[in-house]
Design goal:
This protein is an alpha/beta fold. It contains 23 helices and 22 strands. The strands form 4 sheets. It has an 8-stranded mixed beta barrel with strand order 13-14-16-17-18-19-20-21, surrounded by 4 helices. A 5-stranded antiparallel β-sheet has the order 2-1-5-4-3. Strands 7-8-6-11-12 form a 5-stranded mixed β-sheet, with helices on both faces. A hairpin with a 2-residue loop joins β4 and β5. α2 packs antiparallel against α4, α8 packs antiparallel against α9 and α13 packs parallel to α15. The chain binds ligand C2E and magnesium ion (2 copies). The site of ligand C2E has 24 residues, from β14, α12, α13 and β18.
């Protein structure tokens, strides 16, 4: 049974359908045929029974005379009539007392019919047994039974007829079976056809992953519904697949591109450069690598916000993309660093032309709201195979060359030269030297006077840091302050400067000099330290300096990083009576609306604007604008970098009385300061303790 079940399970639907239809047809036909044969059988038997009964009745009537007269010959004659009836195989007349009176038998039949009826029964009787029919008929005379006529008929003929039916029937069944099979074979296609096409489509869909395929079938039965549902399922898979593919593509794109600018990212850049180098190696070409770092981008980001920063980066990307050729690669490595792989580099001249172009497009003013931004970049160039053979070394060389471009005042390009590596190593060395500078007491402060130009009186001093290195000599703060910022050393250095400046101010006071304001520069990193106020208070406490004599100089970009938080810190500074000045005012991007909210005391006009006063025709305009702004905001204003008498005249004429610069006094060590003034102002060698007012202005 299990074997049959497995066999059926393994059959295709088509074969199953054919088998089912054929078997059912055959069973139905066989049933019908059986009914037909059985009906025929009973009809034939009925007909035989009737015939034999009529015959028996007829003969029995004739037999009474023969019995009464005991005429056996006559009885034999009567029975001889049975010869004409081929199905009658024997007959017998039996007397009432059970004696056989006469008999007839066909040659083939040996036996006489046995009595189905007792001789005394007055009723006729008939019975089928085996392959015979036995009929018994009482023979009567004057209502008295005098004997019985028994006739036996053979059913063989009926059996032969039935056998013929069966034979014909079987042949007919075989034909019908064949026909049923043929019809089933054709009809099963109505069901198996759609299923097969469905299965075929499924196979194609899964093997080719082509979800755009559909099963085309117009029918409204269950298969139609199945096909409809299947197509609908494909629809959904197709939509989901498209969605997935899109997401996959997006992911791939994001993996290899910079989200902000859409340029290649570091991963793709590495791959492209690798590829470019392989090609160049094979073809004997050169490849130029440009490393571009935007100058002071952090300032833009900090003072104008990240949105503007992003806008600048996008614009720079667009401009650089327009400059490079089709086969070149432009990538953003993060922050404000861009790289260009130029595969068609021929010679240095060609590379230099491209570098100049890059520089030029960067320098074009960038419209940001109502103001123009001026962006520039420092570009380092390395060339394959001259400077390096692999991605890493070329990158390193371009990076070093870029730093050299920064060192040389930014907004320029530099080809890598082997000497630059030494410079880069020097920078590293410089860092470790700076770390030791504070411990070794190599740092010192110089002081530059801030002067009331109308009277010539000193009103304050700005503390300016110096590094006296035993080998390098006096190192400019412009050189080491950025390094200190980068490395975080500025925090401890800044604290030292505060202490030192406050102490010096107290020393001057104790020596009898006027109470000059002490201006101390605070770097951005220092400004954002949570312990800035603590450090300032500590310096004031330890030295005993009056807080109103301390002025902190901060830059615009430092406070614009987070204006709200900056305002909070500034208020805490001002609450203690300490003054706040904005250094290099005009070079940052602080918004005027913010400026109103800052609790400031002073604006310091940047040196560049002071310098412009005498150079350009309308050069004093910016300085004048800052003065007007300071007036509006009720702030003090001081001009930095006053180098000439003409500048003093202009500034005084425009109402700016405070100045600082080489013309008024250079930065100098504390000890030398008073001597210097004696010498310069009065030509005297000494300062008597009570005559300082004569020498450097009584207003002090
Ligand atoms: P700054 O605060 O704007 O200081 C003024 C700079 O201009 C000083 O340069 C000063 O020597 C220079 N200077 C003064 N008068 C003139 C002039 O008439 N002409 C010219 N060309 N220059 C003049 P210095 O001392 O080299 O300092 C440069 C910068 O380093 C300072 O600019 C300040 O930002 C920073 N710095 C100096 N000392 C410190 C410090 O203790 N802490 C921090 N955080 N920064 C400092
Ligand atoms: Mg300053
Ligand atoms: Mg300045």
């Amino acid at each position: 049974m299990k074997g049959l079940r497995r066999f059926l399970d393994n059959l295709s639907i088509r074969s199953k359908l054919i088998l089912i239809i054929t078997v059912i047809s055959l069973i139905v036909l066989m049933g019908l045929f059986g009914v037909f044969v059985m009906t025929q059988r009973s009809l034939l038997r009925e007909a035989l029974l009737q015939e034999v009964q009529v015959l028996t009745q007829d003969l029995s009537r004739n037999c009474s005379a023969a019995l009464i007269f005991d005429d056996r010959l006559a009885a034999d004659d009567i029975l001889d009539n049975l010869k004409s009836k081929s199905q009658v195989v024997s007959g017998a007349i039996v007397t009432a007392d059970g004696q056989l009176f006469a008999s007839y038998r066909q040659q083939v039949v040996a036996e006489l019919p046995h009595a189905v009826l007792p001789s005394s029964s007055r009723e006729a009787a008939a019975s089928f047994f085996g392959s015979y029919l036995e009929v018994s008929q009482p023979i009567s005379f004057n209502e008295e039974q005098i004997g019985t006529l028994h006739i036996r008929a053979s059913l063989e003929k009926i059996h032969q007829v039935l056998l013929r039916y069966v034979l014909f029937g079987l042949v007919g069944l075989a034909g019908a079976g064949l026909l049923a099979w043929l019809l089933a074979w054709r009809m099963q296609r109505l069901i198996s056809g759609p299923i097969e096409s469905l299965a075929q489509t499924m196979l194609t869909v899964s093997s080719e992953q082509d979800y755009s395929r559909r099963v085309v079938m117009e029918r409204s039965d269950e298969l139609g519904t199945l096909v409809e549902n299947f197509n609908e399922m494909l629809n959904q898979i197709q939509v989901r697949d498209a969605d997935l593919q899109e997401k996959q593509q997006r992911l791939n794109y994001l993996a290899y591109h910079d989200a902000l600018t859409g340029l290649a990212n570091r991963l793709l850049f590495d791959d492209r450069l690798q590829h470019a180098l392989e090609n160049a190696r094979r073809l004997g070409n050169r490849v130029a690598l440009f490393f571009i770092d935007l100058d002071r981008f952090k300032n833009i980001n900090d003072s104008l916000g990240h949105k503007t920063g992003d806008m600048v980066l996008k614009e720079v990307s667009a401009r650089l993309s327009a400059v490079i050729r089709a086969g070149d690669t432009l990538a953003r490595l993060g922050g404000d660093e861009f790289v260009i792989i130029c595969e068609q580099a021929t010679d240095r001249q060609g590379i230099a032309i491209l570098a100049t172009k890059v520089q030029r497009v960067l320098n074009q003013p960038l419209q940001c709201g109502h103001q123009d931004l001026f962006v520039s970049g420092s570009i380092g160039v390395s060339v394959f195979p001259d400077d390096g053979e692999c991605v890493e070394s070329l990158m390193q060389c371009a990076d070093v060359a870029m730093y050299q471009a920064k060192e040389l005042g930014r907004n320029n390009y530099q080809f890598f030269t082997p000497g630059m590596t030494e410079l880069a190593q020097e920078a590293l060395l410089m860092e470790s030297k700076l770390r030791k500078a504070l411990e070794n007491g190599e740092l010192l402060l110089h002081y530059q006077p801030q002067v009331d130009m109308s009277s010539g009186c000193i009103i304050g001093m700005e503390a300016l840091l110096r590094w006296q290195h035993p080998v390098m000599g006096l190192v400019s703060p412009a050189k080491f302050i950025p390094l200190a910022e980068e490395t975080g050393l500025i925090i401890s250095i800044g604290k030292w400067v505060l202490q030192q400046a406050c102490r010096q101010a107290m020393l001057w006071q104790q020596a009898g000099y006027p109470a000059w304001t002490m201006a101390v520069n605070i770097s951005p990193k220092q400004f954002w330290q949570t312990d800035l106020i603590d450090a300032v208070e500590k310096a004031l406490e330890e030295t005993g300096l009056d807080p109103t004599l301390l002025e902190l100089e901060i830059t615009e970009s430092a406070i614009m990083q987070d204006a709200d938080k900056a305002i909070d810190t500034m208020h805490r500074v001002r609450e203690r009576g300490i003054k706040l000045a904005i250094d290099d005012f005009g070079t940052g991007y602080s918004s005027l609306s913010c400026l109103r909210r800052f609790p400031l005391s002073k604006l310091k006009i940047d040196q560049s604007f002071t310098r412009d006063i005498l150079i350009e025709e309308d050069g004093g305009a910016i300085a004048e604008g800052i003065m007007a702004l300071a007036r509006t905001l009720k702030l003090d204003v001081i001009a930095e970098g006053v180098e000439e008498a003409g500048q003093v005249e202009f500034l005084l004429a425009k109402g700016c009385t405070e100045g600082q610069g080489y013309h008024l006094g250079r930065p100098m060590p504390a000890e030398g300061l008073v001597d210097y003034y004696l010498h310069k102002v009065a030509g005297k060698a000494e300062v008597p303790a009570d005559s300082y007012s004569v020498l450097i202005g009584s207003g002090g």
